[in-house]
Design a protein that fits this description.
109 residues; mainly alpha; Eukaryotic RPB6 RNA polymerase subunit; 4 helices; 3 strands; 50% helix
Amino acid sequence: MDYLAIEELMDRVGSRYSLVVGAAKRARQLKEGAVPLVKCDSQHPLTIALHEIAAGKVIIKEPGEPGDEPAIEVPEAEAEPREAGELDLAEDEQAEEDADDAHIEDEEG
């Protein structure tokens, strides 16, 4: 199995925070059925996501303003039609909050 050097990943991303958030986001996409963009010996989504980042197939964008979450970008030529070219982590968090609110309302109602 290939081991990735943190220095190589940091050169591509810029900060550990962005690397962790972006890799987790991409791993979640892979777990939900997205097609891996690189061949990897591992079947673990996080390992595949890190290999994609190291290969430059997934680009993690730094947040623009304080409080923003990093976003990941999968080049459109390599993405499946069901995947978005650019993904914003804040949208997922909002969807999770909405689902939690709906669950709370169901319990109260």
